[in-house]
Amino acid sequence: MVKTTSSAPKAKSVKTPKKKTPVKTADVEVTSVRKPEKISKKTPQPKPQFQITELFKVWFEGWKNTFNLKGRSSRFELWTFLLFNAVLAAIVQLKCSYYMSERFLRAAADAALDLDTIERYIANAEIIFYLSFLIPFIPFCTMLIRRMHDLNKLAWKNYMEPIFMGCVVISMLFIALTELENTDYAYTALLLSVCFVTILYSVGFYGLKVLIMTMFYRGNTNANEFGAARYNDDTHEEHALNLSCIWALFVLTIGSMWLAFALL
């Protein structure tokens, strides 16, 4: 007998792939740490220190630039020049007024001075008295022109208005005085009244406008077509305001004293 052996093919064992267990990772938020920004602190610029010698320097510069029509001048220069000249003029005029008073005549009589010497003293005192007004007026006018340059304005355009109207007023007064004999009183009074109104509203208006601009307006802090700025910082502007107040109080005080002595 033939043994039949059944040789059935063995089934291959299929290996199932192992599932990979997911590895849990902690969610870490990564934030970029910024370094604190350095606050740039600007070192404050030191304010320019004000010295009393600067007043004398500015005053001398005003006299030095008597005939200088170029450049610029600030309010600080203007009020320094006005205040120093007011004090100097008051001292000179008080001394001159002594020689024009009865007190000097009594002292001269006690000293047995001759008449020619007394007249010479009085004449010289009168000349110096009026020169104390006229001499500072020239550098003051040129400084007003430089003040207009400090405001970046042409001086001749602003000053020609009151000068032109002043010429008109002078011509009208001349006509009124020359025609006084040939006309009646009403016509002359009409011309004089027109002259007065013209003075009040033209010369006075334009002149006051220019004076307010030049004496109280602050100039440009930057350079303009007339040159660089001078004494236009905040410190000098504050001192300019103080000097203007001192000048006003000084003038009022001297004027009150003169009025009191005149009435007494």
Helix-strand topology string: HHHHHHHH
Note the overall shape: flat
- Percent of residues in helices comes to 55-70%
- Percent strand equals under 5%
Q: How confident is the prediction overall: mean pLDDT?
A: 77
Distance between the termini: 179 Å
| Number of continuous helical runs | 8
Number of E-state strands = 0
Radius of gyration from the CA trace? 45 Å
Q: What kind of sheet is the major sheet? A: none
Unreliable sequence segments: 1-14, 23-33
- The secondary-structure class comes to mainly alpha
Protein architecture, described:
- Helices cover 63% and strands 0% of the residues.
- Helix 5 crosses helix 7 (185-216).
- It has helices at 52-64, 75-99, 102-110, 115-134, 137-150, 155-178, 185-216, 234-263.
- The chain contains eight helices and no strands.
- The chain is an all-alpha fold.
How does the SSE layout of this entry go?
Elements lengths: L51 H13 L10 H25 L2 H9 L4 H20 L2 H14 L4 H24 L6 H32 L17 H30 L1
Helix pairs in contact: 1-2, 2-4, 2-5, 2-8, 5-7, 6-7
Summarize the structure.
With about 260 residues, the protein is mostly helical.
Give short descriptive properties of this protein.
264 residues, mainly alpha, 8 helices, 63% helix, disordered N terminus
